[in-house]
Design a protein that fits this description.
With 199 residues, this protein is mostly helical. It has helices at 3-10, 27-34, 48-60, 69-76, 83-98, 116-119, 121-128, 132-148, 151-162, 177-185.
């Protein structure tokens, strides 16, 4: 197995941006590894809206609860889409976050002026007010819903991101890292067996 193929199995999820997987990885850096891209927290194969939500969620999640992020990294690989899909997803994330904040005036999406991470921060804060168990289920359901928005338009991109012309290293069973991680994580987003646990 190549170093790139084994790194995603042992990488330690942590807050912030990292220089290399040896120093840890945030959820989006793990997604870049699974997609076979260069190591970055802005992977091209992930929708910027979803990536913005997950970067903030990753960094604000209480210490010791990062294991849930492994499943999210594989779920969102290949979700990059056009502007109309991104705006639909952003509106859905903000509406989801507003459920627990009470009624207030809806703000316009000034996406040209502010990164998605900040635009979607109220939704991340709403998620973090939940108890851990229901929060994990709610966030997983939200991400699945976001991935489904515009899914007919991103199906080709998702297939390419999972295995772009054989560029993604495969494990001994022939599975790509994203497929192996998704299978190991299971539908409920449980902690992944085979990952090194860090306190």
């Amino acid at each position: 197995m190549t170093p790139a193929a084994s790194a995603y199995q042992t990488v330690r999820l942590a807050k912030g941006r990292h220089d290399s997987p040896d120093r840890g990885a945030c959820v989006m850096e793990l997604a870049s590894m699974l997609a076979g891209e260069r190591f970055t927290d802005h992977p091209r194969g992930v929708c910027p809206v979803i990536a913005g939500f997950l970067r903030s969620y990753n960094d604000l999640l209480p210490d010791g609860q990062q294991n849930e992020m492994y499943a999210y990294a594989s779920l969102v690989v290949g979700t990059a889409a056009g502007r109309s899909v991104r705006r639909q997803r952003a509106r859905r994330v903000l509406a989801w976050g507003e459920r627990t904040r009470g009624p207030h005036r809806r703000r316009p999406l000034f996406v040209r002026l502010r990164p998605w991470d900040f635009v979607l921060l109220p939704a991340v804060q709403a998620a973090l007010r939940m108890d851990p168990a229901p929060r994990r289920m709610a966030v997983r359901a939200l991400l699945e819903e976001l991935c489904a928005i515009g899914s007919d338009r991103v199906a080709t991109a998702r297939a390419a991101a999972v295995d772009p012309a054989g560029a993604v290293p495969r494990g001994s069973d022939g599975a790509t890292p994203a497929a192996a991680l998704a299978r190991a994580a299971g539908a409920a987003g449980a902690p992944v067996g085979g990952f090194t646990r860090w306190s």
